[in-house]
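Q: My hope is that you can spare some time for a protein that puzzles me. Underneath my words sits a plain record pairing an amino acid chain with its backbone structure tokens. Those tokens are not coordinates but codes from a learned vocabulary of shapes. Thank you; the sequence and its tokens follow:
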Amino acid sequence: MIPLARRVAGRIAREMENSRLLKQRGREFLEDPNYRLDLVERGFLNRTQDQIDDTAILERIVRSYNRAKIAQKNAGTPFQVSNEWLPIYNRKLKEVMSNLTAGNLDNLGIIYGNFFRDPCSTGLVGLAGKMKKRYFSGKIKRRDQLLYIYDVLCRYKLWRSLTNNRYDVQSLVSPSIGNPFGFEIDGVFVAHGADYKHYYATEISRLVGNNGHGLVVELGGGYGGMAYYLVRDNPKITYIDFDLPENLALTAYYLMKAFPELSIVLYGEAELDKGILRDNRIFLMPSFEIAKMPSNSAEVVFNSYSLAEMSAEAINEYVIHMTRISREYFMHINHIKNSQVKADDFGIERYGYELLHRKQALWNRGRVLEPDEYEFLYCKAESRKSVGVIPGDHR
């Protein structure tokens, strides 16, 4: 439990930073036609879908989850909940875990049908701070409106810059699964975080290659947001997500709802081998199953933030497996300061990889003055020699 004095000090520091953000970044978007505070409240309107019978989906999720929880007990320490995820599990996920364990499909359907605004997605979606009080009450204070609109427009501007304006805003549209919140840009509703997820989906697909046929492994896929864009726009790519069982259950709900026509394999439904990997598009597996992945089987392995949230032992274990699985690229975005192990010290180079680039990821510059996120891209040295990859030529 964080002492009261530290919590108070943290709130004061955050308010001071917010004040500096408003002063330093406040004028950047005054001429932007999307700079409209009335759009902030519209971005948080209820977008629940009509009631659909999800029984078949939820039954598969419950079966897979409970199998994974049994197996997780005998998995090694690196595959257990630890570090930054412990308080989330203890305070935020009790209700969804209880319903998954009991197989209460009615309650589970209600929770997942609102997951963008429910504690079950803590750490996977949303803004820092008291979201429910600040943004879901129906009365958003002007200060919070300003902070939100700066964040949205900073991210959108960065997405435009990084993609060289190759895509229009329609590319960011995603299904209204889970009652998403977001912002209307040029009249188009964009779910919060879509720009980040779409950008990395395009980067991964570019690394896979021109034929677009390959296998991508993600460690910690959130609710499946990046996977949605990757699979939607690359019909030949096979996607595998390794994550904690609770997160996987949510990912399974989102992706099965988004792609009802695709073959999606959950834990306990098939063993990971080369044959099964050829015949299906999406695999959602608990983290301890990563040890079963064939070596040199993936074109790209990817991680967004979660490595930095782990213990040193867990980071080392996952790096060993991810470097073994990839035959070409290892991309990740993680912290270089606020982490038990700094991203510069993950030790990926020890496993025959060369760093192609290390650059600051500025997705949160609308929220914090000095973002502690960096994007790293590594290439396996053997692959670089065989295909003639040179630093920067993937751009």
